[in-house]
Amino acid sequence: MRVLVVGSGAREHALCARIAASPLVREVLCAPGNAGIADAFPVRPVAADDLDGLVALCLREHINLVVPGPEAPLVAGLADRLAATGVPCFGPVAAAARLEGSKGFSKDFMARHDVPTAAYARFDDLARATAYARSVAHRVVVKADGLAAGKGVTVCDDVDQAVEALTRALRDGAFGEAGASVVVEERLEGQEVSLHVACDGERYAVLGAAQDHKRLGDGDTGPNTGGMGAYSPVPAWTSALEARALREVVEPTLRGIAREGSPFRGVLFVGLMLTPDGGTRVLEYNVRFGDPECAVLLARLDGDIVPWLLGCARGALDADDVRRRDVAAVGVVVAAEGYPDAPRRGVTIGGLDRAARTTGVQVLHAGTRRDGTRWVTAGGRVLLLVATARTFDEARARAYKAVDAVELPGAQVRRDIGWRAARDP
Predict the structure, then answer these.
(1) What is the pTM of this model?
(2) C-alpha span between 198 and 200 (Å, rounded)
(3) Residue 133 buriedness (CB in 10 A; 0-12 / 13-18 / 19+)
């Protein structure tokens, strides 16, 4: 097989490496990729949102399977376009991808299908939205309805913050068309867990659960980011919780989207809040692997992942193809100075060879490029260092040993990835 991975981050680097290990695969290509991916795999200069270019690339390169990393091409209809040409895609059609592409659609969908989630209301009028935010007794979260490059969600501490977020979206147009309507929902408190399941339209198999760290600084301080690190397994995520979440969230979601005419194929990533009653409530749906969660979940999967990727794409998943290893995985992001608002570019990165020699560690590139013989920064999240070991403590120690080998002036690194697991193993 020849497989195309779509995207340019650490998630796509992890997917390329794991897919290439399959005996079923002759070559892995990536579009557009990044400099680190290009060191090991052929990359093609086709943007992830260039659907015409991606379809043409698949036909020209005789691609047998496409694995999209980011959500935007799926929401735009990449899977639909590929289906029309007969190329299998591990990702949902556009109608199913609305679960992530529209916050309003997803909340209404959950209400229709009795999926537990936070109380909410939808608005496209600033005055009515403001009145609602002032009227409810609970704190709120303001979410732009559409895709806003991860910047459309504001977790509000008080009413003033809520009014400011609503004003930015609905009056000032901070998120363009994506923020022309908003969801205002109850702010839930507690532990978040990212549950990933592989789906073929009818059947599903659990890939695992991970915990991401969204805030920039230690102790969950500072601005929200795309994710500063993740780990798996999560001690609070018990087999009983997983069974309940599958029964109350995953299964009604998959049944519901199929009944509405769009069976879900690909990976369904459900962001969950653990509740005091031993259940879960849905924070959001994602229709692709999380980043950085993807890398730590892949590190815990055993054997060849291509059979179930292809099985999902073709509607013929064999759940026995998905096998999990009894190991721990910890991923730590090394971010550039100035991230997330204004990351410094062109800064020399050293020590990558030393980091890669750390036992049990994989060095994944995200925001890097080549400048002659030097590696330099080319984005906000620069690297993801993923370590595996028999225990969480071992994996965490390995990950930070690799982090300490990296030389990047002004680097931003959270030193408490997995702090809940360290506290309550």
Answers:
(1) 0.95
(2) 7
(3) buried
* Rounded (5°) CA angle 204-109-257: 35
Local structure of residue 366 (DSSP, 8 states): S
The H or E element spanning position 251 is helix 251-259
**In degrees rounded to 5, what are phi and psi of residue 153?**
-115, 130
Q: Which two tokens stand for residue 64?
A: 């047998």
The tokens for 398 are: 């390995």
Beta bridge partners of 117: 282
CA nearest to 132, candidates 97, 166, 175 = 166
Contacts of 318 (CB under 8 A, 6+ apart): 307, 308, 311
Task: Identify the CA nearest to 295 among candidates 196, 170, 409, 189.
Answer: 196
SS (H, E, C) 124-191: CCHHHHHHHHHHCCCCEEEEECCCCCCCCEEECCCHHHHHHHHHHHHCCCCCHHHHCCEEEEECCCCC
pLDDT per residue as tens digits for the range 242-287: 999 999 999 999 999 999 999 999 999 999 999 888 889 999 999 9
- Cα–Cα distance between 234 and 330 in angstroms, integer? 11
Q: What is the pLDDT of residues 310-326, one digit of tens each?
A: 999 999 999 999 999 99
Pairwise CA distance, residues 110 & 272, whole Å: 13
Tell me how far CA of residue 400 lies from CA of 82, 306, 405, in angstroms.
41, 30, 9
One-letter amino acid at 130 equals T
b/e 164-179 (16+ beta carbons within 10 angstroms → b): ebbebbbeeebbeebb
- Summarised one tens digit per residue, pLDDT across range 38-64 is 999 999 999 999 999 999 999 999 999
Spatial CA neighbour of 124 closest among 134, 135, 132? 132
Amino acid at 234: V
Residue recorded with tokens 């909410």:
120
Cα torsion at 37, 322, 271, 282 (round to 10°)?
160
Integer CA distances (angstroms), 5 to 23, 200, 357, 363, in order: 17, 19, 26, 18
For residue 343, give both structure tokens: 């990351």
